[in-house]
Amino acid sequence: MRHNKKFNHLGRTASHRNAMLANMACSLIKHKRITTTVAKAKALKKFVEPLITKSKNDTTNSRRVVFSYLQDKYTVTELFKEVSVKIADRPGGYTRIIKTGNRLGDNAEMCFIELVDYNENMAKEKAVKKTRTRRSKKSAAAATETAPAETAAEVSSEATEETKAE
Predict the structure, then answer these.
(1) Helix axes 60-70, 38-55, angle to 10 degrees
(2) Please, are residues 87 and 119 in contact by the beta-carbon 8 Å criterion?
(3) Element (H, E) at 37
(4) Contact between 79 and 66 (Cβ < 8 Å)
(5) pTM score, whole prediction
(6) Residues 34-82 pLDDT 10s
(7) Residue 79 in contact with residue 64, Cβ under 8 Å?
(8) In sequence order, what DSSP letters do the residues of 66-100 get, joined into one string?
């Protein structure tokens, strides 16, 4: 029975799992976004978030502790110089998992895992949204004269979309 055993072993030995998570964490810190399975992403989130929290305090001891997990000095340097500056005011939740569907070969659930402050698409305000202007009846009449079948259908479909949006 597996009562109270909440740790996902991912079908690997402890040494293989630690090496895999360390490599995935290095890739996540270098590239800011990686694609993987949902189970690995959840395990990686539990692995990397304490390391990012530790990087907020830039001391020799915290660098040594993070290096003992990651084993890549370039990644540790980038974590302490760039990533820790961006997440300095964030109290937690440094990563985001976005599900992307299933893999073709084995139907495994796939996802993106990314650092939250590095996604420019999510960071943009909704105020940037472009507003559509209504067309006057004169311009609609002029459009129907040029190509009656196509533009009339387009104008009527745009009018129905605008009424649905309101």
Answers:
(1) 160
(2) no
(3) strand 33-37
(4) yes
(5) 0.71
(6) 999 999 999 999 999 999 999 999 999 999 999 999 999 999 999 999 9
(7) no
(8) HHHHH--HHHHHHIIIIIHHHTTT--S--EEEEEE
